[in-house]
């Protein structure tokens, strides 16, 4: 009986010695996650920007869009992308289906310049450039986004024929991945 | 001694229990890290922000207009007792294709105080030329009787809706109107008095 107790005491001593070594053990757990590149949504009223009368009292093209015209529109009060992005801006000219054979004096097309300002980033494109323009946004950006239309122009100072004109500005915001 | 033995058994049982807990902790740490994010969520669930396209429609107008900027005015009074001709210019401003029509109110110079048995009207003719942005168009001569409301005949600028400019516009251009009349058959066949006619020039955007 004494021998059994002694063995049990030795075994217990060894176990107690190993106990502190297990308490000091350490391991590393790596935690990974990411913030996905993201741009906020962009939507705007479907109502056209009415640029008013394109011809002045002499029948020639106006030097600038009239005071009553909507030449500016805020597309977003606070638009953002949390990563580098590009904004492609394309402007199609104002055209009317009305035509005339006297194309040396008249035109059915009025060009203009579209300017986009997004916080401290800006760029512009003329509707004469069919491919549009790409505005690079090198880093995350946030702020109001505004579109401005200006500089009506016709080729060779031709007079615009009477009629209803329509055009379009297309903005494409894409993350630069 | 029995107390010591019992104490040792209890301590051993306690150590075994602690060892079991330690082993379970190591096994948990060796599992997937993603599990630590919580169930039902992975980073790929985050919105990736597909390209956004926005189209802004634009509109503008060039309103059609067609007006006379100045009315035709004869330099003086025609002397109807002899053959004569007079000319008058008028201004037009049409930024769209248009129709021009000329009407005569009386169909000739009409005596204000006609006398019985004497002709009331002195006939005359009008020629119209219109300067458009495509060039000058001479529309020919028409008798005033052809231009009256009752009888338009085949006059180029009096019948129907009048003369059509085709595709031509006429922005700040001029037109010319010529009047000519023949001498009366006998100088004393034309009664004394005032004679008048009203010539109406109508411009309208062609729809």
At CATH level 3, the topology of one domain in chain B is Jelly Rolls
| Computed Rg of chain B | 50 Å
The fraction of residues assigned to DSSP E strands of chain B is 35-45%
Q: Tell me the number of helical segments of chain B per DSSP (H or I, 4 or more residues long).
A: 2
Number of strands of chain B: 12
Q: Report the portion of residues of chain A in β strands.
A: 35-45%
Q: Which oligomeric form is depicted?
A: heterodimer
Could you state the order of secondary-structure elements of chain B as H and E?
HEEEEEEEEHEEEE
CATH architecture grouping of one domain in chain B: Sandwich
Number of strands of chain A: 10
What proportion of the residues of chain B is helical, as a percent range?
Answer: 10-25%
Instruction: Estimate the helix proportion of chain A, in percent.
Output: 10-25%
Number of helices of chain A: 1
Please write the string of helix (H) and strand (E) elements of chain A: HEEEEEEEEEE
* Distance separating the two termini of chain A: 78 Å
Class of one domain in chain B in CATH? Mainly Beta
Secondary structure category of chain A: mainly beta
Write the layout of secondary structure elements.
The complex is a heterodimer of chains A (about 180) and B (about 210).
Chain A: H1 2-23, E1 49-53, E2 72-81, E3 85-95, E4 106-107, E5 109-118, E6 121-126, E7 133-137, E8 141-153, E9 159-160, E10 163-175
Parallel strand pairs in A: 4-9
Antiparallel strand pairs in A: 2-8, 3-5, 3-7, 3-10, 5-6, 5-8
Chain B: H1 2-29, E1 52-62, E2 66-70, E3 84-94, E4 98-104, E5 109-111, E6 121-122, E7 125-132, E8 135-143, H2 144-147, E9 163-164, E10 170-181, E11 195-196, E12 199-205
Antiparallel strand pairs in B: 2-3, 3-10, 4-9, 4-12, 5-6, 5-11, 7-8, 7-10
